[in-house]
Design a protein that fits this description.
The complex is a heterodimer. By secondary structure, chain A is mostly helical. Chain A has one domain. By secondary structure, chain B is mainly alpha-helical. In chain B, helix 2 packs across helix 3 and helix 5 crosses helix 6. The relative contact order of chain B is 0.10. Helices cover about 75% and strands about 0% of the residues of chain B. Chain B is built from six helices and no strands. The chains are: A mainly alpha, B mainly alpha.
């Protein structure tokens, strides 16, 4: 029941990404290309998603706990550091080069297009690469006793 | 460059569905709807339970375009106006960035912003600027 409801939520997300146009890299890149073939559609995606989630979260956080869990797992950190800003800046560069972001690419896998699988494989490689660099620099900072 | 049609209503409806999904995920299992977290937790899960909900969510996401295809008779358009090299290079860079930045458009841009998280607001402003600059550089400075 719990996993099936999570599946349905993923489906709602996937349909939303599909009909919104976020699934289409050409549309995403055109949103950022104000000086060229500009397509402002994604403002409506972001606006619709943000307002809905804002109101939805307000209602949900009125509860003591989620339906299937005892606590809400929400990131507690409020620190804006170089890692957050640097990482986000790098993410934007990659997004601008490829046109896919993770939230667009995962549902897009369902179209069966090879380009999406190529992007997603590279995305996973990048996640592992960053973890490898992170664990190496952590090991240097705190050498094993 | 591929021209795309301005689709305010479809995009707004899609955005509302994304928001409904984010709200329902928080309501049911108390989790943030972030594609980065879903994928990162799948390729290296902390436990079996951490894997299961992400796998179910991903299975649903992937079914999304298929359901749209079954209902409308048309698979949602995926037009890739970049080279394979750009796709792969961009993919690796996105993977590194979202790992260091702890999230992407869905996690920071929708869920974090909706919670008015200062970290997510700062992250979203940052990646919107660098994405815009990158597209401008590629299309109008290098490619122009």
């Amino acid at each position: 029941m719990r996993l099936f409801s999570t599946y349905l939520i993923g489906l709602i997300f996937g349909v939303g990404i599909s009909i919104s146009g976020m699934i289409n890299p050409a549309k995403v890149l055109n949103f950022f290309d104000i000086a060229g073939t500009w397509d402002p559609s994604l403002i409506f995606v972001m606006g619709g998603a943000l307002v809905t989630t804002f109101v939805g979260y307000k209602l949900v956080f009125g509860r003591q706990a989620p339906v299937f869990e005892t606590t809400f797992s929400v990131p507690a950190s409020r620190t804006i550091d170089a890692k957050l800003i640097g990482g986000s800046a790098v993410f934007g560069i990659g997004w601008g080069i490829a046109g896919f972001c993770p939230g667009g690419a995962l549902p897009a896998l369902g179209t069966g297009r090879w380009e999406v699988f190529a992007f997603t494989a590279a995305l996973i490689a990048g996640i592992f690469l960053a973890r490898f660099i992170q664990s190496n620099s952590d090991a240097r900072r705190a050498p094993a006793a | 460059m591929v021209e795309t049609a301005f689709t305010p209503w479809a995009s707004l409806a899609g955005g509302v569905l994304i928001g409904i999904a984010a709200t329902l995920l928080m309501l049911t299992i108390g989790r943030v709807m972030g594609a980065t977290g879903v994928l990162a937790g799948l390729v290296q899960p902390a436990s079996g339970q951490e894997f299961a909900w992400r796998a179910a969510l991903l299975a649903g996401m992937v079914t999304g375009p298929v359901v749209v295809w079954l209902v409308s008779g048309e698979m949602p358009a995926v037009e890739v106006p970049v080279s394979t090299l750009a796709l792969v290079l961009g993919g690796v860079i996105v993977g590194v960035g979202v790992t260091y930045g702890s999230g992407c458009t869905s996690g920071h841009g929708v869920c974090g912003m909706a919670r008015l998280s200062p970290r997510s607001i700062a992250a979203t402003i940052t990646f919107m600027i660098t994405t815009g600059l990158t597209v401008y550089l590629i299309r109008h400075v290098i490619g122009g």
